[in-house]
Amino acid sequence: MAEGKISTAVIKRLPRYYRHLGELLESGVERISSGELSTKMKVTASQIRQDLNHFGGFGQQGYGYNVQHLYTEIGKILGLDRKYNLIIIGAGNLGRAIANYANFEKRGFVITGVFDVNPKIVGTKLKDITIMDLCEIETFAAENKIDIAALTIPKTQAVEVADRLVKLGVKAFWNFAHTDLNVPEEVIVESVHLSESLMRISYKLVNEDKTGEI
What we know:
A hairpin with a 2-residue loop joins strand 5 and strand 6 (about 130). The protein is about 45% helix and about 15% strand. It has two domains: about 5-75, Arc Repressor Mutant, subunit A (Orthogonal Bundle), CATH 1.10.10; about 85-195, Rossmann fold (3-Layer(aba) Sandwich), CATH 3.40.50. The chain has a six-stranded parallel beta sheet with strand order 7-4-3-8-9-10, with helices on both faces. The chain has a two-stranded antiparallel sheet with strand order 1-2. The model has no long low-confidence stretch (mean pLDDT about 90). By secondary structure, it is an alpha/beta fold. The protein has helices spanning about 10-25, 35-40, 45-55, 65-75, 95-100, 105, 135-145, 155-165, 195-205; strands at about 30, 65, 85-90, 110-115, 125, 130, 130-135, 150, 170-175, 190.
């Protein structure tokens, strides 16, 4: 089935499948039924079968799922069988936290550049990467392929910086700025609004609805 026909809800569940299957592998589990996986993920067995049937099913009647095979195949569906060059715009606390998170590189997201406008930190090291001035981004983009740009900058700067990066050929943004980006339709934007997540938690607390995952 073409990706465009697969619902957003299914796509959002794929990383959860991948994470839970990875945990099963670490525990030495070789196979699992949809029922057992549903208990672990708190998703019905029927939903799991429906989700995976979009991509071919992967299960065997009376056997269940081979954990390693399913983990590998979902990784391929998610595009984790390749490398992505990721740059970070903004070397403040959030940018530094992202740069220091080792699991990104394990998943194939390689941080190749970090940029900021603060002269006090430009030229210093973040892990093994020298923080560059944002004015150097054009030169960097001409010499390096950029797949994804993480924006950890104030919203007042984010729209302008995103426009600048689109002109340099960046096709995907991981947007932590509290604003919507005005980019061409073909450019991918995944926005992470931390305050909105807290608001959803607040709503559930007020309404005493603590079931399910937010």
